[in-house]
Amino acid sequence: xxxxxxxxxxxxxLIILIFYFLIIRPQKKRDKETKAMLAAMxxxxxxxxxxxxHGTIITVKxxxxxxxxxxxxxxxxxKSAISSVVNKDAAKTAAKKAEKTEKIEDKAAEKGEAGVxxxxxxxxxxxxxxx
Length: 131
Hints:
It contains three helices and five strands; from the N terminus they run H-E-E-E-E-E-H-H. By secondary structure, the chain is of the alpha+beta class. It has a domain at 1-40. A five-stranded antiparallel β-sheet has the order 4-3-2-1-5, covered by helices on one side. Strand 1 and strand 2 (54-60) form a beta hairpin.
């Protein structure tokens, strides 16, 4: 009777750990990255909204941004409606982040640590990036 109870408790603990590492932790990481992206938006950044509208930021306010979509069309969006910032600077930042992650993985491999460190894939290097 006691053995059955301990196996059940261990099973539930393992399921909770699996959920944490596969679902909860990655979601928190994405939320943190999104908040950082929204906080770092500035005038002149090229953005894409969650509706797929491409434009350039004209004004950044507390809760909203004004995006220039065309020569005369300007639309005000909630900051949360911005899905990504598309800049040359953003690509450089992603490349630096990938390099940093590779260094961490190399250090972990040198120490002989088992497991895979979560890493974002580096963007493909183009001729423009090499120059």
